[in-house]
From TrEMBL:
<comment type="function">
    <text>Catalyzes the conversion of (8S)-3',8-cyclo-7,8-dihydroguanosine 5'-triphosphate to cyclic pyranopterin monophosphate (cPMP).</text>
</comment>
<dbReference type="InterPro" id="IPR023045">
    <property type="entry name" value="MoaC"/>
</dbReference>
<comment type="pathway">
    <text>Cofactor biosynthesis; molybdopterin biosynthesis.</text>
</comment>
<dbReference type="Pfam" id="PF01967">
    <property type="entry name" value="MoaC"/>
</dbReference>
<dbReference type="GO" id="GO:0061799">
    <property type="term" value="F:cyclic pyranopterin monophosphate synthase activity"/>
</dbReference>
<dbReference type="InterPro" id="IPR047594">
    <property type="entry name" value="MoaC_bact/euk"/>
</dbReference>
<feature type="binding site">
    <location>
        <begin position="113"/>
        <end position="114"/>
    </location>
    <ligand>
        <name>substrate</name>
    </ligand>
</feature>
<feature type="binding site">
    <location>
        <begin position="75"/>
        <end position="77"/>
    </location>
    <ligand>
        <name>substrate</name>
    </ligand>
</feature>
<keyword id="KW-0456">Lyase</keyword>
<dbReference type="InterPro" id="IPR050105">
    <property type="entry name" value="MoCo_biosynth_MoaA/MoaC"/>
</dbReference>
<protein>
    <recommendedName>
        <fullName>Cyclic pyranopterin monophosphate synthase</fullName>
        <ecNumber>4.6.1.17</ecNumber>
    </recommendedName>
</protein>
<dbReference type="InterPro" id="IPR002820">
    <property type="entry name" value="Mopterin_CF_biosynth-C_dom"/>
</dbReference>
<feature type="domain" description="Molybdopterin cofactor biosynthesis C (MoaC)">
    <location>
        <begin position="15"/>
        <end position="150"/>
    </location>
</feature>
<comment type="similarity">
    <text>Belongs to the MoaC family.</text>
</comment>
<dbReference type="InterPro" id="IPR036522">
    <property type="entry name" value="MoaC_sf"/>
</dbReference>
<keyword id="KW-0501">Molybdenum cofactor biosynthesis</keyword>
<feature type="active site">
    <location>
        <position position="128"/>
    </location>
</feature>
Length: 157
């Protein structure tokens, strides 16, 4: 049997059995950003996009994505989230929109995948809503920045 926990005795990918693990409070924070032209960022900030409020829509999309992560990522356990916070911060200097997501649960497995999925979907939503002004936008730097709880303890980038 492989020493990687996501492989079974036949070295096939499978969902890890977390049934014997104790519940604990678990938190994960992830971030990423989308770079765009200054004109696209200005239109986004002023609410002048043809599709409407990009930041508000992206915030809701990120929350919805976190709740559906197990449907999107193979072998990911479905979780009952106790908290999800999606922050989208425009920056004229870059120009870009930074996204930070905090996800939390009280359970037997972590919420890293939920936080990472929420960041990506929120930024994809910004792309979708701004693409008429800038098809050259670039999503980058999607990464976990902090994890708390569980058997492996805390981790900070």
């Amino acid at each position: 049997m492989s020493e990687l926990p996501h492989l079974n005795e036949r070295d096939e990918a499978h969902m890890v059995d977390i049934g014997g693990k104790a519940d604990s409070h678990r938190v994960a924070v992830a971030e990423g950003l989308i770079r765009m032209t200054a004109e696209a960022l200005e239109a986004l900030q002023q609410g002048n996009l043809a599709k409407g409020d990009a930041l508000g829509t992206a915030r809701v999309a990120g929350i919805m994505a976190a709740k559906r992560t197990a449907d999107l990522v193979p072998l990911c356990h479905p979780l009952s989230l106790t908290h999800i916070d999606v922050k989208l911060t425009p920056s004229a200097e870059s120009p870009a929109v930074h996204c930070e997501v905090t996800a939390a649960t009280r359970g037997t497995t972590g919420v890293e995948m939920e936080a990472l999925t929420a960041v990506q979907v929120a930024l994809l939503t910004v792309y979708d809503m701004c693409k008429a002004m800038d098809r050259g936008m670039c999503i980058e730097g999607v990464r976990l920045t902090h994890k708390r709880g569980g058997r492996s303890g805390d981790w900070n980038r």
